[in-house]
Amino acid sequence: MPILEKHLFVCTHGPFCWHDGDCDGIFERLKKRVAAAELKDSVRINRAGCLNACGHGPAVVVYPDNIWYGHVQIDDVDELFASLQNGEPVARLRLPDDFQKQTNHYPEAVQQFKRVERGLDDQRRAARESIFAAESVASD
Ligand code: FES
Predict the structure, then answer these.
(1) Most ligand 1 atoms within 8 A of CB, residue of 10, 12, 16 to mutate
(2) Which atom in ligand 1 lies closest to the alpha carbon of residue 57?
(3) What are phi and psi of 73, to 5 degrees?
(4) What distance in Å separates the CA atoms of residue 140 and residue 127, rounded to the nearest whole number?
(5) How far apart are CA 71 and CA 69, in angstroms?
(6) 107 band by pLDDT with thresholds 50, 70 and 90
(7) Beta strand 43-48 with 6-11: parallel, antiparallel or unpaired?
(8) pLDDT greater than 80 at residue 139
(9) Residue 2 has pLDDT above 80, yes or no
(10) How far from 79 is each of 29, 30, 55, 119, CA to CA, in Å?
(11) Helix axis angle, 77-86 to 23-36, nearest 10°
């Protein structure tokens, strides 16, 4: 596998960013731009869980540059993609180095969504543990 030059993580699975913009759309459009430019061997776009930039979403981080973007909207994707190619970060979307997670302003329904997600995580973990336990018994 070639060494990636850039690795972008888009918060698509965090509990809050989805409320601030079309995280899945941003992810899909970035993937399409990378594919169309035939950069799949050097640029990877990944879905991510919470990047701890809640309240500034949708959040995107670029590695290895350690560039954090916030409040990204789908119309920003072309500019973001161009920045990967020209090496100039999109200043208007950059989060300050000292940004803080902020979640208190989200409505109760969004806070509830976070609790539902945690419950689903617990179920997923329990299902995995159950499978591992069954495999362990079968191999004994
Ligand atoms: S929910 Fe996206 S950074 Fe936390």
Answers:
(1) 16
(2) 2
(3) -120, 165
(4) 20
(5) 7
(6) very high
(7) parallel
(8) yes
(9) no
(10) 12, 10, 22, 37
(11) 40
Q: For residue 65, which amino acid is it? A: D
14 lines ligand 1 (CB under 6 A): yes
CATH number at 6-93: 3.40.30.10
**And the tokens for 112?**
């509830």
Per-residue tokens: 123: 């179920």
DSSP string of the chain, one letter each residue: -PPPSEEEEEESSSSSGGGTS-HHHHHHHHHHHHHHTT-TTTEEEEEES--S-TTSPSPEEEETTTEEE-S--GGGHHHHHHHHHH----GGGBPPTT-----TTS-HHHHHHHHHHHHHHHHHHHHHHHHHHHHHHHH-
pLDDT in tens, 23-53: 999 999 999 999 999 999 999 999 999 999 9
Domain boundaries along the sequence of the chain = 6-93, 107-140
